């Protein structure tokens, strides 16, 4: 939750005029529970999403995730009807069925990686994006950036803010 990428994405969302909820997965930091190999963590994403959707005054929601969180967000978002724009930064492309999950996303999708990211290879993102509607898919590959995005946080902020503004409307 205090990661530079997560902080940059949340800061961008807030700067665009939207509310942002950041949370730790079970067993991370001071969170209760223990790591559940991605199963329970999907429930964590669903619970956070439903919590935000139930807040008074909330009309539209988006979902963003980084690394493992991007993987969990991609699984959860695939179950929705396309009403949720999803921004995934450094999605682990070695995970099973990642291409199918990306192709199953019905809504707008932002995929960001660096060309030096050892966890998120650009090629699988480009392949998945090629099977989706071009107007609903953005792929950003940043030269010289690795999985940790040190020094490139302003690019995350720029693209995430523009993406959510475009797909959620002006706040």
Structure description:
The chain is α/β, with parallel strands linked by helices. It has one domain: 3-Layer(aba) Sandwich (Rossmann fold), CATH 3.40.50. Helices cover 41% and strands 12% of the residues. It is built from six helices and four strands; from the N terminus they run ααβαβαβαβα. It has helices at residues 4-15, 39-54, 68-77, 98-104, 122-130, 153-168; strands at residues 63-66, 86-89, 109-114, 137-142. A four-stranded parallel sheet has the order 1-2-3-4, with helices on both faces. Helix 4 (98-104) links the parallel strand 2 and strand 3. The longest helix is centred in the first third of the chain and has 16 residues, at 39-54. The radius of gyration is 15 Å and the shape is globular. It starts with a helix and ends with a helix. The relative contact order is 0.17.
